[in-house]
Specification:
- The structure is a homodimer of 350-residue chains.
- Chain A has 350 residues and is of the alpha/beta class.
- Chain A folds into three domains: 57 residues, lambda repressor-like DNA-binding domains (434 Repressor (Amino-terminal Domain), Orthogonal Bundle), CATH 1.10.260.40; 127 residues, 3-Layer(aba) Sandwich (Rossmann fold), CATH 3.40.50.2300; 138 residues, 3-Layer(aba) Sandwich (Rossmann fold).
- In chain A, 41% of the residues lie in helices and 15% in strands.
- Chain A is built from twelve helices and twelve strands.
- In chain A, the strands form two sheets. The first copy, chain A, has a six-stranded parallel beta sheet with strand order 2-1-3-4-5-11, with helices on both faces. A six-stranded mixed beta sheet of chain A has the order 7-6-8-9-10-12, sandwiched between helices.
- In chain A, helix 5 links the parallel strand 1 and strand 2.
- The interface between A and B is large, with 68 and 68 residues.
- Strand 2 of chain A pairs antiparallel with strand 2 of chain B, so a sheet runs across the interface.
- Chain A binds a DNA duplex (16 and 16 nucleotides) through helix 2 and helix 4.
DNA sequence: CTGAAAGCGCTTACAG
DNA sequence: CTGAAAGCGCTTACAG
């Protein structure tokens, strides 16, 4: 091993007591210096600082939180569907930026739509005594969080609202922007528009489906069961289902996909059949390279950076004493026409 | 607010003491039950369980760690370049899976290649007394972690090796697989192969550059300065630089891009000039939809899931007492030929 | 098998 | 401005 300078008492971690002894002051004076209390003689401050640095002293957040009146752990929980999905990851980063600015650390977790895992992770957050939680829940009953909330831990729900619980919420306008997307397809002459959706238990998946229905009904059309497939979770599943729809019976002339992975699955199915210049497609959620495909993919883009920032802002406001009633923020989506959604109904198609 | 049942002492959090009082046993007996110690009368176990559940008791990890001999906080730190990059995010998820299986929570953090932020985040991890750290470092001097290491906190370096510190490491074979990729282009007749690279301070960026040099030199060619551009960080920067190379002087007939965002930048520049069937391209790192572009993009694919798993396995082995010398694991890459890398040198090009 | 006392590293509440 | 004592919620070490 390289010699990289002297190490005192290997394996030993300095405490405030050690710093106090070395600086020849009381424990309490060290505590004052570490916490930047102003009423300390500058000479003592200097001595304590030197001793702390010499001993590589790092304060123990856990011990401090234990005794502290507010009990703050300087930690928040961010619980999302899947941190490896770009939508979740972008939200996480946006929250992280704001947390770091406050000296707060982030405990992250992914549910994969498993309510049991939601319970485990929130319970784990509770045992870690996080100061607050930002959550995109998998379950549809959040009464079990009430105790934690009563104990003073603020919750901010994102992407999906709380059920049977009052809490701050940040959502996208899924239903309306879905209706707008489907109207866009209707305006190009399409009548047989298929819907690919995620789990029916997911609030946003339901909203997007309802937006699809709104648009059809608004145009005097019926929602046809054979054009609606839900509970799809992966690229592969969406690809298989879209393929079947295109192969069997009277195929759809356009698709509305309720989520980025499902959109990609639809792209694959359409491409496999060389129908990409014939079958229209609009997807919910933007994704990297959507503009480089041929045709480029028209999407309803959400704004995960704003969602993350708004959620963090609400959470930190609560931690700073904001006691207004529960807030509900709606973050705007953007419709981006790139080509795939502008393919008109072709003569000869139905 | 909805009424969701009785809540005892709103704002109050039950402690072991409260559970003990309700169950009419001593504090120590509650502690035994919570920690699943076997030597407790089943009847008392039952009484304690009921009391704990009735009071919604959640053990306080911080307090427990404070007194516990091993001082374990049941928390690890995972510090990566950028959690919103799919490569980092996939590693994070792989680690998270293994951590959850052990009941360990994950504190995540992103550096964005800022060594100062690396110092802040590792220091924050230290104050939180994490049990171990998985880190893809931004800095090139890790002596400052020695104290923490001596205090018993294992570090596993991923993607980049430690400098001036002994620690477990999990890397991809960047240099060799880069050389192989460039040889692939050479075998198609290309001689003017441009290299687009990330910050020269990043270990993997340097390795990939060296692999590029190895291949050229191995073929008896010189490394030409005007074909090498490094310190590129974004899609936009890579796109601009690749565009300039294509527009000015004697353009390259092939590109090797050292990172997923740079590959995408090169794709954009090539497409803008309608050269996608003429200019060859191989990228390091796979990315979603690489196979749906036209031509599909040939890549050297890393295996972030295995990197994450190996790193977590090493870390948890250390926490379980493994005291072998520092381990170094190399995770294999996969060359995926999809089309863009197989475009031959065309007659008339140089 | 059960419990009373001491102490982990820190902050609070108080006295000087 | 400084410090000695008590206590946060738990586990350790020990006695019964």
């Amino acid at each position: 091993m390289l010699d990289v300078g002297p190490v005192r008492s290997p394996g030993y971690r300095a405490t405030m007591k050690d710093v106090a002894a070395l600086a020849r002051v009381s424990l309490k004076t060290v505590s004052r210096v570490i916490n930047d209390e102003p009423t300390v003689n500058p000479e003592l401050v200097e001595r304590v600082r030197r001793a702390a640095s010499q001993l590589h002293y790092q304060p123990n957040f856990g011990a401090s939180a234990l005794r502290r009146r507010d009990g703050r752990s300087s930690t928040i929980g961010v619980l999302l569907e899947d941190l490896s999905n770009p939508f979740s990851a972008t939200i996480y980063r946006a929250v992280e930026e704001m947390a770091i600015a406050r000296g707060v650390s982030v405990l992250g977790g992914s549910f994969d739509e498993d309510p049991r895992r939601e319970h485990e992770l929130t319970s784990s957050m509770s045992r870690h005594r996080v100061d607050g939680v930002i959550i995109a829940p998998a379950s549809r009953d959040h009464q079990y969080l009430r105790q934690e909330q009563m104990a003073g831990v603020p919750f901010v729900f994102i992407d999906r609202p709380p059920y049977l619980l009052e809490a701050d919420t940040v959502l996208s306008d899924s239903r309306e922007s879905s209706a707008r997307a489907v109207k866009h397809l209707l305006s190009r002459g399409h009548r047989r528009i298929a819907f690919l959706g995620d789990l029916v238990t997911i609030h946003t998946a339901e909203e997007r489906y309802l937006g699809y229905c709104d648009a059809l009904i608004g145009a005097g059309l019926a929602v046809e069961d054979d054009l609606v497939v839900r509970n799809l979770r992966t690229i592969e599943a969406a690809q298989a289902v879209a393929g079947q729809l295109l192969d069997v019976g009277v195929p759809p002339t356009a698709f509305f996909a309720g989520q980025n992975l499902l959109t990609i699955g639809a792209v694959r199915a359409i491409r496999e059949r060389a129908l990409q210049l014939r079958v229209a497609l609009v997807g919910f959620d933007d994704f990297l390279l959507a503009d480089l495909l041929e045709p480029a993919v028209t999407v309803v883009a959400q704004d995960p950076v704003t969602i993350g920032r708004e959620a963090a802002a609400l959470l930190f406001a609560r931690l700073d004493g904001d006691d207004r009633p529960s807030q509900k923020k709606i973050v705007e989506t953007t419709f981006i026409a790139r080509g795939s959604g502008e393919i008109p109904l072709l003569v000869g198609d139905n």
